Protein 1
Amino acid sequence: MNEEQILAKLVELASARFKTDASKLGPDDDFFAALGIDSFQAMELMTDLEDAMDVEIPDYELQGVTTFRALAGVIEARL
Amino acid sequence: MSVPLKTRFGAWPARVAARRALREAMGRAGVDPRVPGPARSVSAGGPYHSGSALRWVHEGEVLEVTLHRAPCNEIGLTMLAELEELAAYVRAGAGGAKALLMHSAIDRGFSAGADLRELHAGLFARAAEGASTLAVAREVRGFLDRIHAVMDTLDQAPITTVAAVHGVVFGGGFELALTADVIVADKSARFAFPELRLGLVPGFGGIPRLRRDVGNAVVRDLLLTGRSLNASRAHAIGLVSQVVGRGKALQAARGVATQATRFEAETARLAKRFAKPLPRAELEREKDLFVEMLGRPVVREALTKFVESDDVRPYLP
């Protein structure tokens, strides 16, 4: 999977979990703001991503990560 | 994931016997069941205990304990007091139950751990009152002795104990889950020891219990990075016995608990005592270390930062 494919999957999972229109989520949006989620919900998304992509994402690698694109980059580095 | 409390008692003689057992248990625990109040609600067909943090009820031979204190079952003085009541009930024979099942009715998870706001407020209030460092240390040690007594009782209960966990299983919540003989995890569960960000180590017996169950490399990873593990990873390292789909942990845990009740009680008790020794010396050392670390300025600074933080991710280390 390349970063664009990961990004597409990420947006798909996020929109499904938080019942948000995927077309309204841009790659450079702040996902906390775009999805209206808090830290607990961000963990839920992280768990979904780990399960769907069979990858482990240490929490500390998400420090400073706020956009879908940056998150996709973190995942790509671990695939 | 709110789970409706089911109440099911058998025939009338069984209800009478159960109520008599409860009265006797409470009497032995120093609790007067005749005192009215939400913490000792007893009614035919109703829960044995219904408090503001815990409730428990007998389902056949299984004692089902539900944690239900918002926002996420933080363990402070209220939760501790009710856990002590539960421990007293277990020490008194758990009303004849052959298994104990513990789960959370809070959507966000099993438990977010110690009540840090209460700890912060307590430390600063005592300092403002002019309490000496030694006096505060004694009080913290008293709290630790109480919570350790509860955790050790649950850990060594002479019946099989099962924890059904989901969502946040952090810090003291993780430590509570680790007292169970078997952990069944919902896919949403995440386990973490984030205490180092507060300048502390886990203080409710978590590290000695975790070290008993998994390799020390895993213990160091969790302790020294503060990162969280998902349910699949926790299963892979042997921490969790079963991983089930979202919303299915309670059902699966009931299956485990019911299976445990099929064995003769004394057989199960002897087997558990053999397989699950209590790491007493290490638990004592943990309490000493926690109190020693709590006196350092870095802890108050970290607690203040946590309490005053408007970061949307305060739980990420």
Note: The interface with chain A takes residues 72, 108-109, 167-168, 187-188, 190, 192, 225-228, 230-233, 311-317 of chain B (CB under 8 Å).
Protein 2
Amino acid sequence: MDAFYASPALARPGEITITPWSYQSLGTEMYVSNLPVTSQNWPTANLVIYVPFSIPEPMMITKLFWGNGAAVAGNYDVGVYDSAGTRLVSSGSTGQSGTSRLQVVDVIDTVIARGLFYLALCGDTAGSTSRVLACVPAAGIAQSFGLLQQASVTLPLSTNASPATFAIYATALIPLVGLQGYRTGGP
Amino acid sequence: MIWTPPPRALPNPVVIHPWSRASLGLGVANISAAASGTGPTTMNLYPLYLMEPFTVAKAFWCNGATVGTDSIDLGVYAMTDMATGRCDLIRSTGAVLSAGTASVVQEVSAWKVGRANLTSGNDSTDRSSAPGYTTASVTLKAGRLYLLSFVNTAADAAVASAITGGPGWTSRSSTQFNTTGHRVSIWSGVPTVDYTGTIDIAFGATQTGCCWVLDEMSGVGTSTTDGIVQQAVGTGNSTTPLATLAAFGSANNATYGATGVANTSTVAPGAGFTELAEATAATPASRVETEWSVANDTTVDSTVTSGQWGMCAVEIKADTSPFVIPPSAPGVPNIYMAFVCSGSTATILRKLPGAGQNAMAGGLQGPSGSVLASTITPGTAVASSLTLPLAGFSLRSLIG
């Protein structure tokens, strides 16, 4: 085995999967807020929801996912943006498939540096036919957590939200959306 | 050339508040659900754990079901003495009226001047210099504005010849009143290093008495004339002392006034002003009162028992540099976010931990007051139920 020097880790390593419930995203706030995850209607067609997260070191994104609720229909696009609104990677418009489970999309391996980023999720179908796993905080809470949004984005993100045009969050919903990094196996 | 390992810690969250991992976070989990309710009317302090500087674009709070009537002040303190708990205000929003839409974020991006009274006193002894009139021992912090206001008496009440102790002091506003028998003055000083000791007011000729007030201002742009933008004086014989300032240079600048009277009766601050302190000397009868407004107020006034008065007023320049919350000192988590509400009509979105739970997580309770003072020494709040507001600071301007 080759000998090598690695400086000691002085902080918690980066998480393999990052969702709004992760420590690197809104995990602490979500836990403090006592917000359960349930099946919810996608609130507005063509609305992009941006959830902030940060990473302590460079990581390679290998997969993106979101949580489907009790009914599926239409298409979703999931992506990652930097804090300036530049799209870094996305799944492309993908038909929603499989109820009450994660829907995972293998994406082009993309390395992002230490910093602040946003998970993005957009669905093109509102109402009870297209449901996602999400929590529904009281009005003002998600806005206070730093979520952002963009209305009227016809899929895909790579065409119509690149770069993103961030707006104040005015939606009472935080979806289960996430990424996987470092490894290619799972979920 | 040396090699420095890259930072490994998680970057700052985009928004920090008492619920976040950069503050109390999990220490106050498993408590009541968030709900609209009144804010704290005593200063509540919450530790911030930052690895890197946090440049604030906006301060914010989430309004509850009722907006209006009361004001909210949100700021950041550094605990500069871990033994006594002394905290010095870094920046604050000042008192901002609750407004806008219920259950929506209200934002602020203007940083105001904070203030506190440090000491006051009097001496009816005939003195000139060596020593002159000497204050109690005080601690002055580098970079802050200190205003020493005093009334001295003599047949021809003189301008102080020198003030010694701490920073270099400069006369900013002064006027004789009661013909020539009394004089009220405001002097300013900005220390370049911390100072603890007395301050001596000396005169070139014998004065028959002096009473003084020393006030501290934080969040001041002190680079020019210690942050004193303009001054005005007034004299008269009535119940309504007044000095009229010109239009202010910025809506963020503050107003400060010193009333001098030739009697010992209490002085009431003018409308919109908060009194900082009063001091009185019995022989000859004289009194000085200082007052302050976080806002622009060209009409600097007070109310007194009818008699001779003199009034000095100054405009204080708010610091326009970026508001940067420093990371905790190495090994010393010493940075605190502070929040206070002026009354119990306006509501905010907040949680109410059980008694002692906030203190258990590191929260502190400061003094009561409608605005954050420039210097406080908070106590613990073991028995109190502190409020946990959804309020804090954002790295980006897009929040509310």
Note: Chain B touches chain A at residues 5-15, 17, 19-21, 25-26, 28-31, 33-35, 51, 60, 62-63, 103-105, 349, 351, 390-392, 394-396, 398-400 (CB under 8 Å).
